[in-house]
């Protein structure tokens, strides 16, 4: 069984619409998929409609990825199996969207000082009806201003400490965890080794996430080597966190693909262990 619990659509910084993502899931033979757009659930209704029409065998899990602040790091927390219409959740996400809008304006102003005029309107066009993110600004720089690559856009301008970096006033982890759980979901620490922190700080992060009431941690995701994965699994076991797996899919590519996030463990309990999955076989084999 293929389970992928972290993916994005054009309602945040993914390149595929919810319909296209469902079709991609069918092509990649994904059995269980969570759509986890940044700070919005607006694409989920469209995804459910598409699944019913194109891929009824798919089990679609309602999710969201929430941005938080811990010390000087932006930490992402995935909410899984949420009630997407829960009023507390929707009120919280509306506040998040306002913060994103304010940050986008500030980023555009800083990029203008770097010599890049008119980026906000172009970024909005890329975002369409979805949330505007730093990834949309990166696409503008690459496609319109001769910046060499998406990675270069972050390394030179948009990344932490760079000339157009803007710190959003995100909430603390405990608040996001509480909101997810009020909406009936499980709070999962996303891609823990991608926060540009030392092992010592990562250990502190996971300990705080657990102390704040977090439910699980991603132990399988793109860009994690064997040593780091062993460390993350050790932390999950130490703090009795459920294990999650997700491709963090944004678009088809060489390094990431929908459903390419196999997980197996005799020690860790998967986050989906008590979900009513359509298949009785809820184990996952490691990818070849």
Number of helices: 9
Strand order of the largest sheet: 1-2-3-4-5-6-7
Query: How would a crystallographer describe the biggest sheet?
Result: 7 strands, mixed
CATH architecture level-2 label of the domain at 100-158:
Orthogonal Bundle
Write the layout of secondary structure elements.
Blueprint (H helix, E strand, L loop, with lengths): L2 E2 L13 H10 L4 E4 L8 H11 L4 E12 L2 E8 L6 H27 L5 H9 L6 H11 L5 H9 L14 H10 L3 E4 L9 H13 L4 E5 L5 H13 L3 E4 L43
Parallel strand pairs: 1-2, 2-3, 5-6, 6-7
Antiparallel strand pairs: 3-4, 4-5
Helix pairs in contact: 1-2, 4-5, 5-6
Please provide a written account of the structure.
With 288 residues, this protein is α/β, with parallel strands linked by helices. The chain has a domain at 100-158: DNA polymerase, domain 1, CATH 1.10.150. The protein has nine helices and seven strands. It has a seven-stranded mixed sheet with strand order 1-2-3-4-5-6-7. Helix 5 crosses helix 6 (150-158). The longest helix is centred in the middle third of the chain and has 27 residues, at 87-113.
Characterize this entry briefly.
By secondary structure, the protein is of the alpha/beta class. 39% of the residues lie in helices and 14% in strands.
Based on the model shown, name its key terms.
288 residues; alpha/beta; seven-stranded mixed sheet; disordered C terminus
